[in-house]
Amino acid sequence: MGISSTLRLNADDLNSNFIKSINTLFKGQDIEITTKIIDKDFENENIKYKKSLEDALNGKAYELDDNFWHNINKRIDK
């Protein structure tokens, strides 16, 4: 199994120093670089819904809003 890293940064921060760092970390290795746009609203909602699920599993009950039920399919790990 190889090394796996996730680096989160703003595209404006990409510069020659970033490339030099990647080269140093993975010198002589074949690497794969994948990019995606981070949807911060979605990530914040995911944290909220996962916390709600954890609370429910621990017996903590409270009312869920309509958005929870509308978006639940997006939150279920498949």
List the defining traits of the structure above:
78 residues; mainly alpha
Q: In sequence order, what are the helices and strands, one letter per element?
A: HHH
Mean pLDDT: 79
Number of helical elements = 3
Query: Quick one: biggest sheet?
Result: none
Distance between the termini: 24 Å
Kindly state the number of beta strands. Answer: 0
Structural class: mainly alpha
What is the overall shape?
Answer: elongated
* Uncertain stretches: none
Rg on CA atoms, Å: 19 Å
- What is the helix fraction of residues, given as a range? 40-55%
DSSP strand content: under 5%
Question: Summed up, what is this model?
Answer:
The chain is an all-alpha fold.
Give the topology, please:
Elements: H1 16-25, H2 40-57, H3 66-75
Task: Please give a structural write-up.
This protein is mainly α and 78 residues long. It is 49% helix and 0% strand. It is built from three helices and no strands. It has helices at 16-25, 40-57, 66-75. The model has no long low-confidence stretch (mean pLDDT 79).
